[in-house]
Amino acid sequence: MELEQAMNARQNNNEHTSKLFMCPPDYFEVTYQINPWMTPDGWNENREKLTAQAHEEWNNLKATYERLGHEVVTIDAAQGLPDMVFTANSGIALNGTVLLAHFRHPQRQGEEPHYARFFEGLKEKGLVKNIVAPKEGIIFEGAGDAVWDPYRKHYWVGFSQRSDRSSVDMVAEVFSQKAIALEMVSEQFYHLDVALAPLSRGHMIYIADAFNDKGLAALKEHAGGDEFLVPATAADAEGFAVNAVNLGDDIITAYCSDDLRGRLEALGYHVHVCPLETFKMSGGGAFCLTLKLDYQS
Fold it and tell me: In this structure, is residue 107 part of a structural domain?
């Protein structure tokens, strides 16, 4: 009933159908640790069960997008690259231009040529206009750290834990858009997308502990008023509620406390919870598993 109501609301509002990029979890597992959430021993203890669960959860997330009226395009998973499932890190896309990622950890750098070939294929089909490689030597982990604000029409760019500070200027230069730097100060919230979710109506869900005083001041300065700031509870932070995909008034997330759901629904959003327990074991939620390809400035 919740999905049906959201679809009817979208038809009434003539909302845009989004094109989303995902990668199936054919080779997903937790085999190494590059963030505090990753526990290879825990995965190995229940490998068979968790593998089946990962496919079930991923398929449910993809089906939710499609039932809400959006299109999902996928890339073939590659053996030996378990985190390739987190397509948000492949790059960022705006106005038909894609800026590719360059990962900090060697365990993920093997994903880069697969993503590059995928986007080249989209370019051949006319779905992408330009593909830009990151400047040499700059670490930049895609939409994990460069989050487009659909209301304010600018990028929020996280740096220090994964992406370099110089990536902020690179994003601004490539897209000719304002990019606001936010230093990530917690190993637990290593990417911006696990700590900040700008929403279509101008509200921003955020985890205060992920930022230093300067970053929090920047959020408040550019928010436009305290009424736009929606702090996450400790339970929401733990559940990856902030790592949410926002499409129109729909919010798709792995978890949402009753408190947060009530606040968001009072603001006019529709919350859809898709449990992603296996992917949280690798430090990712709904946003990490999804890259929106058709943002427009």
Answer: yes
The total number of structural domains that make up the chain: 1
In a domain, 168, yes or no: yes
Residue 12 sits in a domain whose CATH number is 3.75.10.10
User: What residues contact 45, with CB distance under 8 A and at least 6 apart?
Assistant: none
Q: Per-residue pLDDT tens, the chain, 297 aa: give them.
A: 444 444 444 443 435 899 999 999 999 999 999 999 999 999 999 999 999 999 999 999 999 999 999 999 999 999 999 999 999 999 999 999 999 999 999 999 999 999 999 999 999 999 999 999 999 999 999 999 999 999 999 999 999 999 999 999 999 999 999 999 999 999 999 999 999 999 999 999 999 999 999 999 999 999 999 999 999 999 999 999 999 999 999 999 999 999 999 999 999 999 999 999 999 999 999 999 999 999 999
| Active-site pick, 23, 256, 274, 288 | 288
Whole-Å CA distances, 209 to 112, 193, 258: 31, 14, 21
**Is 297 inside any structural domain?**
no
Domain, as residue range, for 32:
2-292
This prediction's pTM: 0.94
In terms of phi and psi (left: phi > 0; alpha: psi -120 to 50; beta: otherwise), the region of 143 is alpha
Indicate if 272 belongs to the active site.
no
Pick the catalytic residue: 70, 154, 191, 270?
A: 191
- 270 part of the active site: no
Report which DSSP code applies to 211: B
